[in-house]
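Page 42, continued from yesterday. The earlier attempt failed because a stray header line got pasted into the input along with the sequence. Redoing it now with the clean sequence only.
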Amino acid sequence: MLKKTASWLLLSVIMLSACSNQAPASTTETPAATTEQSTSNTPATTPESSETATTPATEGTTSTEATTPEQSSESTTAKDTEATVPAEYTYHMNKNYDIVPNEESKETPKKVVLLTFDDGPKEKKMINSMMDTLDKHHAKAIFFVNGYRIKTHPELLKLIHDRGGIIGNHTQDHIVLKHESKAKVTQQIEDTQKLIEDTINEAPRFLRAPNGATNDTVHALAKKHDMLYMNWSVGSLDWVNQKDPDAVISNVMDQLHSGSIILMHELPWTVEALDELLTKLEAKGYTFVDPNAIEPKMR
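This time it went through. Structure tokens are written below.
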């Protein structure tokens, strides 16, 4: 009897031990299976993920992907870059042929002058001397050139352009356009426009009629070719006071005012006067406007 009792007790212990060993095994498997499912499927199947993917941005809900620090930083940088890009044009020309800042500030002062030179290109030595002086004073200028001169010496036009001069259209033959036919005016301007573009791979943005003698056809052609028609508001009279650098300087200084467009020519006495003239302008607090900053329309 005792043997039977002992046998039953031993069998009970064995059965209980077996049941106890099976429970932990089942418990251990469950987290493993849950982890695998979570890793592979949760982003696509959880309610939060589904709502995030379909909620419009205008409701103020953004996805986890859209709000990560890296992407937020990239977005801010893009906005900052866009905000700091300077406006293409910061000055314009008014109806008095003066240059005016679109909005006066430290970066765009009112006390500026625009330097312009007509009737070139003529000689390499004079061009290099002018460009050396402009570089010395950190100044830019528009060079209104004639087509017949470019045909003779295209390399001189390239020299001006390569050294940072801004090229303007001054017609083919320097004739007075005011009394010419529409066909003649068109030929004088468009032939020169094409010649300049073919020579330096850049079309002029500025047009000046010889002697400032303009008409409706000239202005229509300027508009057609996206050019700003530009006369001047201060004349150096270097074509009158010949061989007199001091007269060039005094003529400019006597007429000087904020926004002056100064008319000069590629002449030996003007080239000689240029350094002293620019020095005097700077001494009076003037700076030199970059022609590239000027709008293509008068206002």
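Notes: The first helix runs from residue 2 to 45.
Reminder to self: strip header lines before submitting.
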